[in-house]
Amino acid sequence: MQRLFAFLSLMPFFIFFICFMVLPLIWIIINAFYIEDDEAYGLGNFIIVFESRFYMQSIMQSLSITFFSSIIGLVFGTIASYSLYVLNPCKISKLLFSFNAMISNFSGVPLAFAFIIVLGTHGVFNVLLKNIGIEPFIDVYSNIGINIIYIYFQIPLAILLLFPAFKNLEHSHKQALHLLGGNIFDYWLKIGIPLLIPALCGVFVILFANALGAYASIYALSNGNYNILPIRIASLIAGDINLNPYLASALSLILVALMLVITVIANFISKKYNFKEA
């Protein structure tokens, strides 16, 4: 009876998962291979994508922004998480963690608008620099500005996900290493980082997915003119001129494939490291 109740309790989740994850993915896979002009199935949509410099640029720029923001977000998130872990359980740590949880939800159009106010052409920071005779060096509409926005919403997420992982670092490990003549560098190289690698790989995958599928912030900032995969997909399913849901499905499948490759690589590294530890 308990198992039946547990199964019935999970039914809403399975129904939701199938309706909004499995069925759309099946629809994308089927339509990605459908060639509208020939009214037949084949690799025509993928040939168009890989022969087009425009679409290849969108893929490369998506990967570039995603990798850079994920790595930087992971590095700063790791440092910040460890700082909160060291301060825990004092009130300052709890306050900072609560503040981080709040700003982790600050994304999308409001985030883009906030950056425009601060770093836009007539933003507060750039106007202040001009008033003191310094030429503004950060343009929120440039590649650097867009990377800063991505990094901004990656760091709070990394902190939230990595903070629990530091509980694996026991103080007894550090004491044992000091008794054996090791230093702090040896501790992190041989104990700390190896224990954190599975968590770091998992968080990197989440950050990668978070950045690769980001749409609202960059669309609000560039009005859809910045060439990345999510914007190209949206323009093909909501555009008035270039409406082509089948080509959009092919681009979506490429995006899913990129995410799958990164996930497999991260899981391989994580399992390999766990095996070495064992």
SSE inventory with pairings:
Layout: H1 2-32, E1 34-35, E2 40-41, H2 44-51, H3 53-87, H4 91-103, H5 109-119, H6 124-131, H7 143-162, H8 171-179, H9 184-212, H10 216-222, H11 229-238, H12 245-277
Antiparallel strand pairs: 1-2
Helix pairs in contact: 1-12, 2-12, 3-7, 3-9, 4-7, 5-10, 7-9, 8-9, 9-12, 11-12
Outline the structure in words.
There is one protein chain. This protein is mainly α. The chain is 77% helix and 1% strand. The chain is built from 12 helices and 2 strands; from the N terminus they run αββααααααααααα. The protein has a two-stranded antiparallel ribbon. A hairpin with a 4-residue loop joins β1 and β2 (40-41). α1 crosses α12, α7 crosses α9 (184-212) and α8 packs antiparallel against α9 (184-212). The radius of gyration is 23 Å and the shape is globular. The two termini are 38 Å apart.
Annotation keywords:
two-stranded antiparallel ribbon, 278 residues, mainly alpha, single chain
Number of helices: 12
Strand order of the largest sheet: 1-2
Into which percentage range does the β-strand content fall?
Answer: under 5%
The run of helices and strands is HEEHHHHHHHHHHH
Instruction: Please give the share of residues in helix.
Output: over 70%
Rounded to the nearest angstrom, the radius of gyration is 23 Å
> How would you state the average pLDDT, rounded?
86
In terms of per-residue confidence, which ranges show pLDDT below 50 for 5 or more consecutive residues? none
Question: What separation lies between the terminal Cα atoms?
Answer: 38 Å
For the largest beta-sheet, the strand count, sense and barrel status come to: 2 strands, antiparallel
Query: What is the approximate shape?
Result: globular
How many strand units?
A: 2
**Helix/strand-derived class?**
mainly alpha
